[in-house]
Amino acid sequence: MLLRFEDDAETDRVVAAVQASGEAWMGGTVWNDRRAIRISVSNWQTSEDDVARTVAAFRSRPGVMAGREIADVYTKLREQALGFGSSEIKAPPVIPGGRALGVVMDMGYDTAVVSVLGLADGTSSIYVSNGGGTIGMGDHDRVAAASKRWVGVAETASGLTETDDDPLPAEGVIRFNVLTTGRRLAGEAPEAELAEESHPLFPLYAAGQQVIAEIRRVEEGKLVDR
């Protein structure tokens, strides 16, 4: 049996991580010019417990969830958003003299990832990894204002470090990417921990939830000002 993940690099990372766990050994291969993982469960000595432990090893890897659907359109939109900088975002930082230009919040679920985007110019969208989502919500005043406040919060947020990596979060994990005039900043934490107001990333999490709330108000037809 062959399986693979959203890109060749992730496939190689997963096979290396599962091998390192000691729960199972499987090799990498190439199929249709894509990296893949070759798995065999035909040995008579393989028990149901062996299979369960191997599946658990896969599920424990950050960003890897059984059954998670990652559509090409989602990957392209997210990559585009993470690449936004001063030339793409037609607005200065929300905080004068600052550098934060936008925030992408990835929320990991068992079968999908939901990414929320808010920019300094008020642009606001939600991308779902199965290909769904809502774009253009920044046309609504209150949604745009919430996104701008979110970017303002990101300016002074702690718990972030410079990065060039963009992994998807595991189930139950929230990952933040702050777009700046320089290098991107990122940080992540389990959502259960982010609910605690003492967590360093709580202000960024709470402001992102407010953007989602305003978008939902629009979708529910409760917001009329534009």
From the N-terminal CA to the C-terminal CA, the straight-line distance is 53 Å
Total helical segments: 6
Query: How many beta strands in the DSSP annotation?
Result: 10
Quaternary: single chain
What coarse outline follows from CA principal-axis ratios? elongated
Q: Quote the beta fraction.
A: 15-25%
- Lateral strand order in the biggest sheet: 7-6-5-4-9-10-8
Summarize the structure.
33% of the residues lie in helices and 23% in strands. It has helices at residues 8-21, 48-59, 72-82, 141-155, 191-194, 202-219; strands spanning 2-3, 27-31, 34-38, 100-108, 113-119, 124-128, 133-134, 161-162, 173-180, 185-190.
Features:
226 residues; alpha+beta; Aspartate Aminotransferase, domain 1; 7-stranded antiparallel beta sheet; 3-stranded antiparallel beta sheet; 10 strands; 33% helix; elongated
Structural overview:
The protein has six helices and ten strands. The protein is of the alpha+beta class and 226 residues long. It has two domains: 2-59, Alpha-Beta Complex (Aspartate Aminotransferase, domain 1), CATH 3.90.1150; 72-219, no CATH class. The radius of gyration is 20 Å and the shape is elongated. The mean pLDDT is 85.
SSE layout and pairing:
Blueprint: E1 2-3, H1 8-21, E2 27-31, E3 34-38, H2 48-59, H3 72-82, E4 100-108, E5 113-119, E6 124-128, E7 133-134, H4 141-155, E8 161-162, E9 173-180, E10 185-190, H5 191-194, H6 202-219
Antiparallel strand pairs: 1-3, 2-3, 4-5, 4-9, 5-6, 6-7, 8-10, 9-10
